[in-house]
Amino acid sequence: MKRKSLWLAAVMVFVLVLSACGSNGSDGNNGGSAGKGGNAAAQPEANDTANSSANTPEDTAPALEPVKLKWYYVQFGIPQDQQAVSDAFNAMTQKLINTTVELVPIDGGDYENKLNTLVAANDDFDLVWTSSWLFKYVDNVNKGAFMEITDEMLDKYAPTIKSSFSDVAWNDVKVKDKLYAIPNFQTFTKTPGFVIQKRFVEKYNFDVSKVKTYADLEPLLEQIKKNEPGVVPFAINKDQTMLNEAYGLQWLGGVHYRLSDPFTVIDPLQTEEYKTHVNLMRSWHDKGYINEDAATVTDLKPLLASGNVAVTQDFTLAPGSEAGRKADFGGNDVVYVPIAEPTFTGVTPTMNAINYNSKHADRALMLLELLNTNSDLFNLLTFGIEGKHYNKVGDNTIKIIDKGGYANNSGWIFGNVTKGYLLEGQPADTWERVKKLNDEATVPAISGFNFNGEDTKAEGANMDALSKEYGPGLETGTIDPAKYLPMVIEKMKKVGSDTVLKAKQKQLDEWAAANGKK
Amino acid sequence: MSTANAAAAPAADFQTGRPKALETHPFYRRLINALFSVLSLCIFVPFLLVVVSSFSSEDSILKHGYQFLPERWSLAAYRLVFQSPAILMKAYGVTVYVTVVGTAAGLLLTAMTGWVLSRRDYKYNRQATFYVFFTMLFGGGLVPFYILMTQYLHLKDNLLAIIIPGLLSPFHIMIMKGFLAKMPFEMIESAKVDGSSEMRIFFTMVLPLSTPALATLGLTIAFNYWNEWFNAMLFIDKPNLVTLQLLLVRMLNTIEYLTANTEFVKQLNIDVSHLPKYSVRMAMAIMAAGPMLCIFPFFQRYFVAGLTLGSLKG
Lengths: 518, 314
Prior knowledge:
Largest sheet of chain A: 5 strands, mixed
Radius of gyration of chain B: 24 Å
Distance between the termini of chain A: 75 Å
Low-confidence stretches of chain A: 14-61
Keywords (chain A): Signal
CATH superfamily of the largest domain in chain A: Periplasmic binding protein-like II
CATH topology of the largest domain in chain B: MetI-like fold
Helix content of chain B: over 70%
Largest interface: A-B, 56 and 52 residues
Oligomer: heterodimer
Number of helices of chain A: 20
InterPro entries (chain A): Bact_solute-bd_prot1, DUF3502
CATH class of the largest domain in chain A: Alpha Beta
Mean pLDDT of chain B: 81
CATH architecture of the largest domain in chain B: Orthogonal Bundle
Organism (chain A): Paenibacillus sacheonensis
Number of strands of chain A: 17
Structural class of chain B: mainly alpha
CATH class of the largest domain in chain B: Mainly Alpha
Helix content of chain A: 40-55%
Strand content of chain B: under 5%
Protein name (chain A): DUF3502 domain-containing protein
Pfam families (chain A): DUF3502
Largest sheet of chain B: none
């Protein structure tokens, strides 16, 4: 009996090994041939089209052979009427570049899990939406998931896209000097500041132009606390950390530094500024200026919507969005109070990359270029079909039909938002303002630097855990900084905050030297 | 999930009813009753809050948070759930379909496999059992599974992709085998002597005699299918083939992602206005858990008996 089962086990192991080999082999073949084939196919075809006629894709359209692309992108809520839009979209792309596109919107909740599996399984798709925060770009570049987009490719197939971004923006997307994705043009600046209900500003004659940091808000908060029972003077949630700019600090590419000295990495916890801030928050908390549940609440929306919040903070005050925030604040008008100049934050929050296995990189680029040049196509994908999903109310202004079945307004996924319609209520010059802001935004000295935490993963994870544990308590004034701040600093040091700080400094120094910044 | 927990309470009551020595002693009885009352409350109260919230008006939730006695009651959430998102009703249909088909097929296959493995006169009994057992210890992993399903079986956007992976679980087979092994073999032999075919033995003797096991396993399998979302997430792209639980998971993840990344939500101007309202979220949770809550009591009798299935014989 024993011998028998041994024999059986041996056979099974053998079978397992065989099957593993088999799948490895076929995998390798698939990946290899697809990769090679893809490049090989893309190149000659590219040359053909370039030689046979003029360079603009519109002119070459009839000569192009039919191609089918597959594009995975994120949606927060899958539109019910996706099919109708897809059909209309394909009719247009077929005419323009003889390409049909299988549009596969994936819900935001599934996106990362699903796309990671697709990438791991070497699935065949052509385009995929990626970003710095969901289905992370740099991670996937490191995995080899995306195809490099060379300068020649850009020049040939996507000249408009190329010219719409500055060199600073392109450098932001590059990983080790190579480009793997096409960013989408939208607001890529941030203007940290406060949002204050207009009625209180007017009632108490509060001069918002003087507000540069948290402490400047105090007079207003005091009056609201005294005279407006039931109104929360200052509301934050547990994820809203200190606005660094309020204290002359900045966070970028994974590191903190002083605006006055951008090449020295600091540990914000150990700065005087942070101490001042948490002490101030503590005093606000004791005086009852801050919402009671600040340290635990994740979603501030219900509280804001009750209309009983006077002031709140915001990382990004998007231009022209004051009007849209009215509903968030229970139907009360709000005033934006920026505390810093608009800063360039990078273009990586929304991009489209080409799958490494794609056989039609050229066509994928052409499609993206089309979405950046052809407003009709872009609007179709963003807002749906006129009369069915939206109605025109002005020259370039539309109103989305409620329950029309295609209302996600997600131009930021597909291309250049300034090519699209404006929504009712947005000022006519919104896109000009966006462009101007993007052009004029201060570019931080270390823009383009990204800290790679691979070597200090364990320390980083421990520090994250600690920040999650104590950060909200400290930054909402819920726990006493006199007692907890030194303790947190101590604990951070124990799990290796100094090592991480050194690693950050080292990488930043190397980066600065390599890019001739210092 | 609450249904699974709820199972603990009645099962415990059942057990407290059994040991006579404890029952006679009023102090122990009260102590145990108190203990399980508290436990049941811990399970019941949050559930009640969900139920109440789903019937609250959105305004009262916004103003006062979730309350046991909302300022204003409202059916608006359910009206919304039943009316506008056709996708939810479709998801309901998909889940019911998958659960019914999957449970029926899964139960049949599990019983058949278990029956074969339990037969002493099956020559490769041990080997086959080991083969089944082996899959409990080693799996291929996610990526090979995905490749198999999409590139070899071509089951993308196919409900079979949700049904097939749940059909046979080695654990269920083992339980079934344990149960069937207790069946007197002489009975089968006599049936054979009388000229009955294997199929007839299985369908007219074995299956009717194993109702407790079938009921228990059926319930577990049905639960698994009802709560299935992972395979649906991997293999289903078409919105009208999505399962109910996947909708819930999505809703949860989406809200989590968006609140954790407010910076990008603001910067990109992501439209979050269509995310389900608070009362609607609760209504959806009730809709998803409800049917199973109603079905469970009918199976409970078997379930308690089934919990000890196969425990007598190793």
